[in-house]
Amino acid sequence: MSSTTGQFIGLALRLAVAMAGTYLSVRMMMKMLDPSREAKEEAKKKVAAILQNIDLPRDVEMNEYEMRIAAMLVPPQNGIDWADIGGCDNLINELRQRLVLPLQLMQSNARQTSLLSPSKGILLHGPPGCGKTLMARAVAKAVDARFIELDIAVLTDKWYGESQKLVSALFSFARKVEPTIIFIDEIDTFLRDRQSSDNETTSMMKAQFMTQWDGFTNSDAQVVVMGATNCPGSIDAAIYRRMPMRFCVPLPDMQSRLQILKVILKDEYVDELNLEEIAQHADGLSGSDLKEVCRTAALRRLSHNFDTHNRIGEVVIRQQDLIDSVDHFRGHSRYTHFFESRLD
């Protein structure tokens, strides 16, 4: 009897060990076969690093999809002040009046009419390199909001239903850490005109995005979707309607170019410069173009110093360096046609 009992107990133990081993093996296999495993692990590492610099609510809980969204948070130290944006004074004042003040009023919890509620959809449009992303970051810093710079590639998942879950996580996470600005650069590539040629996953993701967005439009949620585009006419009409507050960010005029040059060169070693002449000479260039011009001027001076003295010394940017850099930038073969078309 005791022998039979011992055999039964031994068999039960072996069976339990075998079942545990099978369970762990299946778990490990499923984990290894998960196509999003690397993305999830990378998101966890990135979130852990970001959370050290971002003061999130202590009680915030995130699921695996919200963790991937949290990895797109921009740390506060990467924020932009209005003073860091050269030019666009009229646009900055308009953004302050029509967007920043209503958001600050909502955060104050003061009684207000619904007419003062901030718009939940903002569109910044204009030529490339004119500061649309900088504007969005400056708004976020002005209202002390979290800034999610949406990476569309994160939302596109080849497994059925995963993209919709990530879109839902985008808005649920934004609500948990509000006030939040969701920024979509090149929004026309993601939310362009819907066509019959769109695949089912893309169509469902767009529909889910609009459904989630509508859920915030008539609520007291402090979540704003901001988009930037060079081609506003390519945006889906339903999305365009959801972004009633639209701002054109144009190419800088003479005075704006002068301010941009002052911002770029304020901490650089420079000789006596006539920035008005340089700004006049740089007619038609965008803010990012001007930054590239200044970088090229610094490299030209560095090369000149090395060729002349056979050593790398202090780089002091001079007037002629900037003038020559503008001419070089304009004369670039791949840029000439585009530059002329922007002036027409």
TrEMBL record:
Transmembrane segment boundaries: 6-26
Gene3D superfamilies, per database record: 1.10.8.60, P-loop containing nucleotide triphosphate hydrolases
Topological type in the membrane: Single-pass membrane protein
Keyword list, A-Z: ATP-binding, Membrane, Mitochondrion, Mitochondrion outer membrane, Nucleotide-binding, Transmembrane, Transmembrane helix
BP term (GO), one: extraction of mislocalized protein from mitochondrial outer membrane
Compartments where located: Mitochondrion outer membrane
Top-level taxon: Eukaryota
GO molecular function: ATP binding; ATP hydrolysis activity
Recorded family membership: Belongs to the AAA ATPase family.
Name of the protein: AAA domain-containing protein
Organism: Panagrellus redivivus
